[in-house]
Amino acid sequence: MGHSPYAWTTLGAVAQATERVELLTYVTCPIIRYHPAVVAQKAATLQILADGRFTLGLGSGENLNEHVVGEGWPSIDKRQDMFVEALEIIRALHAGGLVTYEGKHFRVDSARIWDLPEGGVPIGIAAGGEKAVARFTEYGDHLIATEPDADLVKAWSDNHEGPARSIGQIPISWDPDKDAAIDRAHDRFRWFAGGWAVNADLPTTAGFAGATKFVRKEDVADTIPCGPDLDAIVEAVKPYWEAGYTDIALVQVGDETQERFLAEAAGPLLEKLRAASS
Where in this chain does the record put each Luciferase-like domain (predicted)? Predict the structure, then answer.
């Protein structure tokens, strides 16, 4: 764990190497490492490079990522207050014109994004409960979540004006060798079993390792689809569309089989997913 590329550099490269695939930050925190004004400009630039394929996914952060700049790790209530201000700043800058903002946590002094994409930048907001949905819906276009919770999807829809997407995420560990797939998922992704309520506060990779030291390989295999069976992946996705999700992000664990997964499994998997959801 810990080996992750810088998302914005990677997305810029992917935008230039592709033409149709949608791009999304899942998710960026605009309150500690990044000032929201900087996030607003990055998102606008990427949307131009991607010809409108980008969605800015935002959340209130994880200690693992945010503590590195030495600003501490605020309480969840304070982070959510900061998140509201950040969303107000990003929305204002994406609306165009000169922006000056004086908040409790952030200031913006005569800022303007001169190059804005046509159609703007849609914003997805990570929300783990109905309280968060009620607070953040007015600032977002789409819901981002990691649990197939029908009540959460309904709460977003009820509070949101106009059409909205609900975007879920599940890890998968595809490999022709099922044992190798389980080993890799246990080594790289067993922290997924802890849930974000716990993971968000852990400051180091050692903390993640300690929090998951009792997670067994069989626990991971029960939680994450492992091996070559595409039907197992379809079954793992099924609760999300039953809960009302419109989109699902599949996270292939590790880099060892990425190219082979795309070459051999991605096409047939998409066919199975489309058939099962129709």
Answer: 4-246
